[in-house]
Amino acid sequence: MADLRRCDPRVRVGLSVLVSPLEVLLDLSPESGFYPFPAPLKVAYGGGLGFREPILYANFVATLDGVVAIDGLEHVGHIVSGGSDGDRFMMGLLRACADTVLIGAGTLRASPDSAWTAEAACPEAGSDYARLRADLGRAPQPRLAVVTASGRLDLAHPGLADGALILTSEAGRRRLPGRLPGRFDVVVLGEERVEVTRLRAALLGEEKGVVLSEAGPTLMGQMLERGLVDELFLTVSPLIAGEPAGSRRPGFAAGARLLPQRRTAAGLISVRRQDQHLFLRYHLGSGADLGLAGLPPA
Fold first, then answer.
1. Predicted TM-score of the model (pTM)
2. What is the pLDDT of residue 12?
3. Looking at CB atoms within 10 Å, which of 37, 107, 156, 247 has the fewest?
């Protein structure tokens, strides 16, 4: 690790330059599970990264006061992150590791010109992301999975150009076009609404599979309530959002009913820093598993 920290602060990534590699403050990741990172990615990240499969991990960027979304704004992640290069790099890296990227229909609508690919997040590292995917035996791009209870999707959205897995209800399926293009697959997970408890089985096989959730805070809250998320990557921005009267500026677990009745805690795996931004990785588990038995009774 010391050799990585002595590298020139400008790290060659693909054909461009990513300034200021992530500084490692803590890393408890098991080295046995590291993926075969190309050298530029390893230097930029400050070490290795890998996952025990099957896994569903989520990625969020939050302000210092915990806000991850601001109603009425498009591309809110870029606003919340303050345009952090490190956050763009991490988003691309996590997409590059994944078989599937999961979003909700609300995220699709709020990002009208987005694509959920690694190079779309950080073009500077595009060639190295592609090499990583090839070395992992992944498809050139992760598959997009979209959750929509209503079935109301703009199939002309540029993010759907290569198709998607549509996870919907029976009512939503009836609202979709009768004959979808062959690049789309539809899985029904309930009658009038999507049964969130069935999401994980629909996305992951029993023995392998890597799913990155970039779903919004409401779907994330539902998945957290049901224990469906294995890990969380959280970028903490130094910006402070505030909460004007009448506005909706949720954290990443919007709508979830947890404390005090339910103690859902996380185990810290790694902490990285770039300038004033922190990049945190957590294992999600119960409070009892993480030594929080001293919490006051619910």
1. 0.90
2. 54
3. 156
